[in-house]
Amino acid sequence: ASTWAGVPAGPPDPILGVTEAFKANTSPKKINLGVGAYRDEAGKPYILPSVKKAEELLAGKNDKEYLPITGLSDFTSLAAKLAYGADSALLKDGRIAVTQSISGTGALRIGGAFFERHYPGPKVIYLPTPTWGNHIPIFRDSGIEVRRYRYFTPGEGVGLDWKGAVEDLKNAQEGAIVLLHACAHNPTGIDPTQEQWKELSEVVKSKKLFPFFDMAYQGFASGDTTRDAFAPRYFVEQGHQIALCQSFAKNMGLYGERVGAFSLTTESKEEKARVDSQLKIIIRPLYSNPPVHGARIAATILNDPKLNAQWESEVKGMAERIIEMRSVLYEKLTNELKTPGDWSHIKSQIGMFSFTGLSPAQTKALAEKAHIYMTADGRISMAGLNSHNVGYFAESVDKAVR
Ligand code: PMP
Predict the structure, then answer these.
(1) Do residues 319 and 223 touch, judged by C-beta distance below 8 A?
(2) Ligand 1 atom at minimal distance to the Cα of residue 259
(3) CA of 61 to the centre of ligand 1 (A)
């Protein structure tokens, strides 16, 4: 018998599995609203002009040498500047330990490994319910115990379950870790207000929780990278030490290039150096050092004031197209089709996703009858909609809910 005869077949990935089903469908009407990758008005993948420009500037200057273990230092310092702000005191003092990572997922996984090895408090992380599906196995595989806090309760309006979130964090184990989506919460599209972030900071402080930020969508929520960095910057200002995961997949459209960063704020330069040394010890046996091309693109953009300004306006353009689709979809459902139910959440939610409230049975019907694919929790990637398919989508939803 084969050595692997006892290996059981695992379930398909709940998000990437949707793309598989979409690819297998041959209908010209098919729409993929599963994966969170930006699509332009023609439904096509979008390479940002600033990225193309950066690649032109890099052409011919690219060697294929190894990067250091923690990546391209031009990139990591510019990534930290983007996240923490150009005027960040921590940055000026050299107190941010930062490493390049294999996009946001890799940042989370390095973070998980670092906390598993060095966090002095309980190795327990509280994740919001719901959260990005991959958060759970990332921390579980890192050896961190996963617990949950309420964030959104289906059927109870379309807002944040603020009372539930605060209550659960107040009852959390003292000194544990808490994962916070910095902006554009995935999958709900609902973020705390700035006032609520201020209150959260107090709750986190009172329970000595460690705030672990996942910022996969800086710029995508509001169209403004500074505004979207409010939460981690505010927590730093309030004296919290934080962990921060960054991804350039969405905001630079560098999905397959795998460009990200993981950082920890420290008390002193000397502490930063110790933390850096341990990040290297974690990364070296995992993958030795990160890929170089995407980091060079991101660094080129962030380093050139003109190109950076162009990029910021392109991020804004993507965010605005999504916001426009939200209002078109809302209008069609509410005013044109008079679809039963309240659809105002489509407009009020932010970021790449909308949590539609469609049931698993309805999402299944949409796939089978209308060739429209989304995750079973009713999450749709708004970026998959455009003026050509939004009408068909709205009519199909209308049929599915009647
Ligand atoms: N965190 C969240 C909340 C996400 O939605 C994503 C992407 N779907 C990621 C992290 C990581 O994505 P990537 O590894 O492609 O940067």
Answers:
(1) yes
(2) 16
(3) 30
